[in-house]
Amino acid sequence: MPPTHLAGLLQRAARHDCDAFATFYDRTIDNAYHLARIVSAHPDDVDQIVGAAYLNAWLDSASHGGTGYSPRAWLMVLVELNAADPARRGS
Hints:
mainly alpha; Rna Polymerase Sigma Factor, Chain: A; 68% helix
């Protein structure tokens, strides 16, 4: 999948296009889960990590363009940030 296509989906999601975000999700979910399984210290947290990353992606989709990352790489950063978030574990 060309990154520009994913970028277009995020641009549409920034305008509250739920269908575009659903397509972005469908095209990236396997990558997100794969990375979350690798970086999570607690395997039971993988669903929460991925869910939080996609929530962040939805809420911040308008800011993606200024990150310098491809859409998939940006999502992977969100997965890593959520995996490392001590508040997520209540610590």
